[in-house]
Amino acid sequence: MSLTVRRVVTGHDENGRAIVLIDEPFKNVVQTRPGAHAAVIWTSKGFPVDNDGSADTSGRKIGISTIDNGTVFRVLSFGPGVTPRNHRTDTID
């Protein structure tokens, strides 16, 4: 089993109108262990998040961790028989 994700990222043109910046089958899918696949769709640094730029932040090297004072939008796929691991979710109050 593999992971197929279609990623659509929107932004704004010079007139402030909404546009599609990226519309593609995601290419950065990695197999983290047998039967487990992951794709980092988007990341941010800092809080509050600065959405003014149009840089594609999905290629930021983060491994399986989080980003201090930031966000990671990751899609995971676990196939049958994948050994479970502990999971941690960080939230901001």
Describe the structure.
By secondary structure, this protein is mainly β. The protein has one domain. Helix content is 0%, strand content 42%. The chain is built from no helices and five strands. The strands form two sheets. A three-stranded antiparallel sheet has the order 3-4-5, with no helix packed on it. A hairpin with a 5-residue loop joins strand 1 and strand 2. The radius of gyration is 15 Å and the shape is flat. It starts with 5 loop residues before the first strand and ends in a 15-residue tail after the last strand. 2% of the residues are buried. The model has no long low-confidence stretch (mean pLDDT 82).
How do you describe this structure in short?
The chain is mainly beta and 93 residues long.
